[in-house]
Amino acid sequence: MVSSSSTHKNKNTKKSTHNKTVRKKKGALYFPDHPEFTPNLTPRDMFLLGSFGGTYWRPIYSQVTKKHYQNVHRRYKDWWKGIPESHLSSTEYDKSINRYKCKVGTSLEFWEGHHWITAYNPYGWVHWYCDFYKGRRCPDDERQIKRWAGIAGPKGRFRRFLATQIARKNGRYDDETISPKIRQVLQHWGYKLTREDFQHIQSSKN
Questions:
Q1: Cα–Cα distances in Å, from 108 out to 62, 105, 114, 196, 197?
Q2: Pairwise CA distance, residues 32 & 79, whole Å
Q3: How many domains does the chain have?
């Protein structure tokens, strides 16, 4: 059984010398060694808002590492103040916990089957993001950042799809009745649409 004290480590995993994160004026996070990676929600933000139906850090068995994991989130315990344990490691998905009150996503087995999970972070992308935000750097960073960019980055398909749906309905960027599932997905990738980003996407289409 692997607990909070250890996840996958090897000689290529190291602590970054550039692990300070800085909020830009527009609200995005800035990582000096990876300036192309600009989420605007911290790991704490994501779970404080309500994500994964409260189940992300549930006990799991990894088909990748062939190990059981539990309490892995406790290595980031300073981030969870004020967040109930039931919003972090529940074994039952509760969509009412989610910010947009809808269920999104697939199973860990699905992600493992598509080879999107590695031994560096058996829980997946958010697990990687927590370690990255905390200062760890590893050989999987480039792949994980590219995955984020393709979904929630400036040209990410989900970010642009949300902006398109809002424009079609002549709505506001923060109208949560428009595409709540897409908004929840983006939140799971560390991003929330801003007025500036919405306007930028619209202007780039003109």
A1: 9, 9, 10, 34, 31
A2: 22
A3: 1
- Amino acid at site 2: V
Q: Over its length of 206 residues, how does the chain's per-residue pLDDT go in tens digits?
A: 776 545 555 556 776 555 556 667 678 999 999 999 999 999 999 999 999 999 999 999 999 999 999 999 999 999 999 999 999 999 999 999 999 999 999 999 999 999 999 999 999 999 999 999 999 999 999 999 999 999 999 999 999 999 999 999 999 999 999 999 999 999 999 999 999 999 999 998 76
Q: Is residue 160 part of a domain?
A: no
95 in a structural domain: yes
DSSP 27: S
Give 72's contacts (C-beta < 8 A, 6+ positions apart): 2, 3, 4, 7, 57, 123, 127
The whole-angstrom distance between residue 47's C-alpha and the CA centroid of its chain comes to 10
DSSP structure string for 124-157 = -HHHHHHHHHHTEE-TTHHHHHHHHHHHHSTT-H
Q: Which amino acid is at 203?
A: S
Residue 181 lies in a domain: no
Q: Is residue 91 part of a domain?
A: yes
Burial (0-12, 13-18, 19+ Cβ within 10 Å), 46: buried
Q: Say what the pTM is.
A: 0.92
